[in-house]
Amino acid sequence: NAGVTQTPKFQVLKTGQSMTLQCAQDMNHEYMSWYRQDPGMGLRLIHYSVGAGITDQGEVPNGYNVSRSTTEDFPLRLLSAAPSQTSVYFCASSWVGGGTDTQYFGPGTRLTVL
Amino acid sequence: LAKTTQPISMDSYEGQEVNITCSHNNIATNDYITWYQQFPSQGPRFIIQGYKTKVTNEVASLFIPADRKSSTLSLPRVSLSDTAVYYCLVARRGGNKLVFGAGTILRVKS
Question: Which residues contact A54 (CB under 8 A, 6 or more apart)?
Fold first, then answer.
């Protein structure tokens, strides 16, 4: 199993550009989520999904869109990038939920918005 | 979810036992204490989870007193490779959100 994979590893955008961060898992997990991590801080939940076709907002959802058309994939879209979205983005998955289930994290995408 | 408080950083030497204490005064009945480890440039990794008393696995032990208002992660005989950030989280059974604090930076020196 590859586990949780994220692409790209690094990305530089200009303000106003859009892009999609990809996340995929091959563990047949129902729950997937996106976090962002800023320097010296913990991770903050952006959006999460409890199964295909179901998504919900986390702590910091503004400026981000998600969709879950398959169990395996959970892309994160930045519609109009802003410098405040410069961060490291982590995708995670688990069997059922985002509470006590063990979360498996991807390697992260480092995004810089100029 | 209950807010957690843990030390910002700790230093230790190879071979020592390290104890990181976390306070979670407002923990609820359905909440579990969960610890994750994060190495630089990697995503967090699950270490251990418990509800009360003591839990031990091949990596660490977790001690939780009867009132559950605090917990202690114990790492036996640390090595340089244990240098990482350790996060204490309160996770709700059946919940869908995890709240990460700033974590504890553990530096292991030779």
Answer: A68
